[in-house]
Design a protein that fits this description.
The protein is of the alpha/beta class. The chain is about 40% helix and about 20% strand. Helix 1 crosses helix 9, helix 1 packs parallel to helix 11 and helix 7 runs parallel beside helix 8. It is globular and about 60 Å long. It binds 3-isopropylmalic acid and magnesium ion (MG). Magnesium ion binds next to helix 8.
């Protein structure tokens, strides 16, 4: 199978973790006889430094023509003082929006071998943790109007508008119900319907969709309660669907419960098969360039690319199994290190996974 992959390393630890995932993809292509063609593109601070903006239209157009995009991470203190439209994070939001990727899938899965990296008591995780977070990615407060003004009294005033249309809720709801059907048929829809109009509309649309999926065990849950339930009883969750900002926050929480944010992959999908694959964590500028970052979230994202964009489930499973074996063999990066394990760097971890494919 021939596929074109654009890779964007971005900033901070981005280059190291993307290099790791590329090694793994190359091994998969070799073993299964695929022809993956790679092309590099710039995003975030790296793009700002080279082109004066965090994402160029040319890059968006290039990405749209590819079969999939692999991304590292963006941002860092070097660019923190730039005006908002030039900040690295804007590049990330622009590529998601520009490619129409409204559905962000973030699987928080606790690998058996990482049980000791989970901060929860053993009795709370005895039934395992396997949560698929479905985050709406191109709407809500992230993409509403943002304004900061100075009032006549000299004090500042800022506002960010949170908005959702029925169509936007419907399409993410549909993705979530379909995912639930493929998994354990359990769906929790998270909102703040006791306060927000957007959440009340969210619930209404989800309830209508629920009628089309009678097999799915569906529940509404308030976002504050969900934050509590994820740490109190994580095994109750199968698929969670929620709006953009709630999903941003809850997925970080779920990732920690699943051992480390260094393990949380993500796939961002739209209506077609093209997708953007990136770890859910940031660019970690404090550890950049030291070869200590965990490349597994990016490698797991590459596995999601094979599964969702290329329809290669066996190849995706080969990567996931190789990660399982690598962890079982005791190799750990610093973030998931525990006693009796062997500490390896970013490069070495990726090589260990490659060896086991
Ligand atoms: C994420 C990140 C981004 C987000 C930031 C970097 C803009 O936190 O992918 O979760 O908020 O979506
Ligand atoms: Mg986040």
């Amino acid at each position: 199978m021939q596929k074109k992959i654009i890779f964007m390393k971005g900033d901070g630890i981005g280059p190291e973790i993307v290099d790791g995932a590329l090694l793994v993809l190359k091994k998969v292509a070799e073993k299964y006889g695929h022809n993956f063609i790679y092309e590099e593109a710039l995003i975030g601070g790296a793009s700002y430094d080279a082109c004066g903006e965090p994402l160029t239209q040319e890059t968006i157009d290039k990405c749209k023509k590819a079969d999939a995009v692999l991304l590292g991470a963006v941002g860092g203190p070097k660019w923190d003082d730039l005006p908002v439209p030039l900040r690295p994070e804007q590049g990330l939001l622009a590529i998601r929006k520009g490619m129409g990727l409204f559905a962000n899938l973030r699987p928080a899965y606790l690998f058996k071998e990482l049980a000791s990296a989970c901060p929860l008591k053993a009795e709370l995780i005895k039934d395992g943790i396997d949560i698929l977070m479905v985050r709406e990615l191109t709407g809500g407060v992230y993409f509403g109007e943002h304004n900061t003004i100075t009032k006549p009294n000299g004090k500042k005033y800022a506002e960010d508008k949170m908005a959702y249309s029925e169509e936007e809720i419907e399409r993410i709801g549909f993705v979530a119900f379909e995912m639930a059907m493929k998994r354990n048929k359990n769906l929790v829809s998270v909102d703040k319907a006791n306060v927000l109009d957007t959440s009340r509309l969210w619930q209404k649309v989800m309830h209508r969709l629920k009628e089309e999926y009678p097999e799915v065990d569906y529940k509404d849950m308030l976002v504050d309660n969900t934050a509590m339930q994820i740490v109190a009883k994580p095994s109750q969750f199968d698929v969670i669907v929620t709006e953009n900002m709630f999903g941003d926050i809850l997925s970080d929480e779920a990732s920690m419960v699943a051992g480390s944010i260094g393990m949380l992959a993500s796939a961002s999908l739209g209506l077609g098969s093209i997708g953007l694959y990136e770890p859910s964590h940031g660019s970690a500028p404090d550890i950049a360039g030291q070869d200590i970052a965990n490349p597994l979230a990016t490698i797991l994202s590459a596995a999601m690319m094979l599964r969702y964009s290329f329809d290669l489930p066996d190849e995706a499973a080969a990567i996931e199994n190789a990660i399982n074996k690598t962890l079982a063999a005791g190799y750990r990066t610093k973030d998931i290190m525990s006693e009796c394990c062997k500490l390896v760097g970013c490069k070495e971890m990726a090589k260990k996974v490659v060896e086991k494919i």
